[in-house]
């Protein structure tokens, strides 16, 4: 007999491939309805950016279709991103479920480019996303997100001054660039960092966010310390390039996060190879190859993906249209989207562990 229970029974062995647990036991199958031979249910994923969405839907359909009498299977897919756990001394950001730090051992490796495109790629999946640009050395996220010269609005309420984030491409953003004088030397900006980071975490009207992506200053300094101590972090992503020096810096960054008790979600290798615009079928390993993969093995952290060096990626940044928006089919956009999905999947696994 075809009823809710028989559907749940046949779905019980189907597992979430990341969590390796039954979808039914994880309460990811809801609203099961049977109308003659027509079966429908809701699949509630742990992130709207689930990279295995199609695969899981397919597994569910196949399982249900083994039951006699089933004619159609209709799966509605939604997502509920789990909330990151926090330690007793930490103060979470109200409404924000997961904070992801994008970091690099040294400047100029493409950290901001990665942070901005990951934020937009996550928003494209329907996730609620914020971007906190904490880079005092080069606060260039506003330019990359098409929000240059934005003036942040300040509102007063009982908690004090509350900043309204800027908004573009589905991403809410605040930046050091909105508050600091770009002509002021970094040595004077540095001491303000701790205070501004706290303000950007707790005195911004972020609203409800699945992911708050933080573009960290490069290196291993006060910003990392402030973040790790103040808020629960879902994890850190370390951006590197294939050169040995950059990989050595990445190693230092990784050790620092580990010492601060922040999970390193993985490495991103940027500028992995060059794709000439006039011969896109070719690839040139300008900085050597396999460095990121080797480092990920040695350091025992996942390699989240490799992004090619592509002129369109830089142009997108300069024009304020991230490549995942302007040319989603390009090799770098595809790599960035896959990296965003990978990160989201790992964050959910960590939150539910
Ligand atoms: N894969 C890539 N292909 C082409 N250009 C890239 C790529 N990655 C980054 N760039 C360009 O390199 C420059 C530096 O990138 P970005 O500002 O993201 O680096 P960063 O590590 O954040 O630097 P900083 O530490 O100064 O903030 C930018 O002009 C960016 O557009």
Automatic annotation (TrEMBL):
Record keyword Iron present: yes
Protein name: Iron-sulfur cluster carrier protein
Domain of life: Bacteria
Molecular function per GO: 4 iron, 4 sulfur cluster binding; ATP binding; ATP hydrolysis activity; ATP-dependent FeS chaperone activity; metal ion binding
Keywords from the UniProt entry: ATP-binding, Hydrolase, Iron, Iron-sulfur, Metal-binding, Nucleotide-binding
Free-text function comment from the UniProt entry: Binds and transfers iron-sulfur (Fe-S) clusters to target apoproteins. Can hydrolyze ATP.
Similarity field: In the C-terminal section; belongs to the Mrp/NBP35 ATP-binding proteins family.
GO BP annotations, alphabetical order: iron-sulfur cluster assembly
Assembly and oligomerization: Homodimer.
Residues bound to ATP: 105-112
One Pfam family per UniProt: FeS_assembly_P
């Amino acid at each position: 007999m075809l009823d809710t229970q028989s559907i749940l029974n046949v779905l019980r062995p189907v597992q979430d491939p990341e969590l390796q647990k039954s979808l039914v036991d994880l309460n990811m199958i809801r609203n099961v309805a049977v109308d003659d031979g027509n079966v429908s249910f809701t699949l509630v994923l742990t992130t709207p950016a689930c990279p295995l969405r199609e695969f899981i839907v397919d597994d569910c359909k196949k399982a249900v279709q083994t039951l006699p009498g089933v004619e159609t299977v209709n799966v509605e897919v939604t997502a509920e991103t789990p909330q990151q756990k926090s330690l007793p001394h930490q103060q979470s950001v109200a409404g924000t479920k997961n904070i992801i730090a994008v970091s690099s051992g040294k400047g100029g490796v493409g950290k901001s480019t990665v942070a901005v495109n990951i934020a937009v790629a996550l928003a494209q999946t329907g996730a609620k996303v914020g971007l906190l640009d904490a880079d005092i050395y080069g606060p260039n996220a506003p330019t990359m997100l098409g929000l240059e010269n934005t003036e942040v609005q300040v509102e007063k309420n009982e908690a004090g001054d509350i900043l309204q984030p800027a908004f573009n491409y589905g991403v809410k953003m605040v930046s050091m660039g909105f508050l600091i004088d770009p002509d002021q030397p970094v040595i004077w900006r540095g001491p303000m960092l701790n205070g501004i980071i706290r303000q950007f975490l707790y005195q911004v009207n972020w609203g409800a966010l699945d992911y708050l992506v933080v573009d960290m200053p490069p290196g291993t300094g006060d910003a990392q310390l402030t973040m790790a101590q103040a808020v629960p972090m879902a994890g850190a992503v370390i951006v590197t390039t294939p050169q040995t020096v950059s990989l050595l810096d990445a190693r230092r960054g990784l050790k620092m996060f580990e010492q601060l008790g922040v999970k390193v979600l993985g490495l991103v290798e940027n500028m992995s190879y060059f794709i000439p615009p006039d011969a896109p079928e070719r690839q040139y390993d300008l900085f050597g190859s396999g460095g990121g993969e080797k480092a990920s093995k040695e350091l025992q952290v996942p390699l989240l993906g490799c992004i090619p060096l592509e002129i369109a990626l830089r142009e997108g940044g300069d024009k304020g249209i991230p490549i995942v928006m302007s040319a989603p089919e390009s090799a770098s956009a595809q790599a960035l989207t896959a990296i965003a999905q990978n990160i989201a999947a790992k964050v959910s696994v960590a939150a539910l562990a």
